[in-house]
Design goal:
The chain is α/β, with parallel strands linked by helices and about 290 residues long. It has six helices and 15 strands. It is globular, with a radius of gyration of 17 Å.
Length: about 290
């Protein structure tokens, strides 16, 4: 593919043109530090390669970053950065074992020439999984154990000069600070007016906000939320990538006219609590 010279994501559903992924490391303390269920590391690599191939087959230009030995969570490229229509915001991560990741991410962005809008500094922290772009002027952020008020304030300060409205929503305690509960654990846009939602953990104000914007949603069961059924990567409106093993939401989507591409992600997605969106850092989405 021809290398793009433009960057930015105005939402999470327009045509995904260029994306950054990272080959997973097989060296690290998956269970003790990463809080994974121990993966088969051979299958981990195979699943990630097939996932990358799937993205390419769907028309995405995929940049592949090298693995970082010992940083098992670094495969989840969505979290160290927020891509905006105005450049990348590098984050400061609350999970101690992930704290080196933004510095590694900066190297990757500089290597391929992505502009950097800013970087969070203490006491702010945030994860990219806690953000959802509705449109180029509307960013939703989950306030929880991975994203604090100082992080929201610093992100808002970087984006307000560009006319972006930042809305925050309190996430529930759920299983506590050690568990992974991002905004994108419960909400994935799949078109400009459609989303997938796990309602039991979704903030009431968030659901009311979606309704006010004319966005309807497909509901996910608790069983399939736990196997990444609510974390869905949209390639373009009504064309999505879903982790295998979620037949209920897959069926709802297909019945609703959504084109679904399923990938085997038992090791690379489910055992690390990170779905297809988590595995990708979008660099460029093109509006039609």
């Amino acid at each position: 593919m021809t290398t793009s010279t433009s960057w930015g994501t105005p939402d999470m559903v327009s045509q995904l043109s260029r994306v950054l992924v990272r080959t997973p490391t097989t060296v690290g303390r998956f269970v003790e530090e990463g809080f994974w269920r121990m993966p088969d590391t051979t299958e981990l690599l195979k699943e990630h390669e097939k996932f990358t191939n799937l993205l390419e087959s769907l028309g995405c230009q995929v940049d592949v970053a090298s693995p970082v030995e010992g940083l098992v969570d670094a495969v989840y490229m969505h979290d160290p950065m927020i891509m905006t229509p105005h450049g990348a915001i590098l984050l400061h991560m609350a999970k101690p074992v992930r704290s080196p990741e933004p510095a590694e991410f900066r190297k990757d962005l500089e290597r391929i020439g992505v502009p950097i809008l800013g970087q969070l500094t203490e006491p702010a922290f945030a994860d990219g999984g806690d953000k959802v772009w509705l449109d180029a002027k509307t960013l939703l952020i989950g306030h929880g154990y991975r994203t604090n008020q100082a992080g929201i304030d610093q992100i808002r300060a970087l984006l307000t000069p560009h006319g972006v409205d930042v809305f925050s929503f309190d996430l529930p305690h759920y299983e506590g600070p050690g568990a992974v509960l991002h905004l994108m654990s419960v909400l994935s846009p799949i078109a400009h007016n459609k989303a997938v939602v796990y309602e039991p953990l979704a903030p009431v104000r968030l659901l009311q906000f979606l309704e006010s914007r004319g966005i309807s949603w497909f509901t996910v069961s608790e069983k399939e939320m736990l196997t990444q059924g609510a974390n869905i990567l949209t390639i373009r409106p009504n064309v999505v990538v879903l982790a295998a093993g979620n037949p209920e939401i897959e069926g709802k989507l297909r019945e609703g006219g959504v084109e679904v591409h399923v990938f085997a992600g038992n090791n690379v997605a489910v055992k690390g609590d990170g779905g297809p969106t988590c595995l990708t850092a979008p660099l460029l989405r093109i509006t039609q």
